[in-house]
Amino acid sequence: MPTKVIAVANQKGGVGKTTTTVNLAACLAAVGKRVLLVDVDPQANATSGVGVEKIEGASAYHALLGEGALMDKVVPTPFDRLHLVPSEVDLCGVEIELARAENHLQRLRLALQPVIESGKFEVIFVDCPPSLGILTLNTFAAADFLIVPLQCEYYALEGVTMINRLLGQLRDGGVNPRLELLGVVMTMFDSRTKLANQVVDEVRQHFGELVFETTIPRTTRLAEAPSHGKPIIHYDKYSAGAAAYEVLTQELLARLKL
User: Fold this and answer.
1) What is the rounded distance in angstroms from the CA atom of residue 170 to the CA atom of residue 103?
2) CATH of 4-256, one of 3.30.360.10, 3.40.50.300, 3.40.250.10, 3.10.360.10
3) Fewer beta carbons within 10 angstroms: which end of the chain, N or C?
């Protein structure tokens, strides 16, 4: 079974993007899959979210510039079967340097190739920055699938329309013809508000089957978990947030046919 590379992206910040990446990666590892989480967001929230310290020089920076192997940057996390390529603030600078490089959109794909060929991982998640800059476009060029987390609020649809348009351009321009939208995850859902339910309905009308059945609730425990460096299933196994991500993981496995 070839390694699946999944980008998790939304150019809008604060939509639960990193929370979704970290928790899906942790849940997949917990059900026995060998998972690599690649953090290319200079904020490095996915790195601290799995309890790994941000260390200078530990990121994909040099590998993206062709100055070393990405495999050398892979580190274990405190959780079984979950490995990480950490991020750091320096990754901000790579956007500028890559813009001047040739093949600037294919750098992550080239860096990931030996990691994929090693057969060590079944699924690779890439946590993108909350923008459509060069790092995000590199991730789209390297990925097989895209997951878009969407906050249950009024502006949510704008983000998806933009990403959809971009996907079309990447396919048509030959940057990555195989990239597929795997699904839309509705996050920060508050069942008590009329608006949240309306947004979910509207997104379902717009994207149909692509919207995952599972919605991720807005909960205090989910918000607290990253500050303890733990995915929700390791922070509070019996919380509503943990249950939601475990069910979402089953949906994801079905869509990936794993």
Assistant:
1) 14
2) 3.40.50.300
3) N
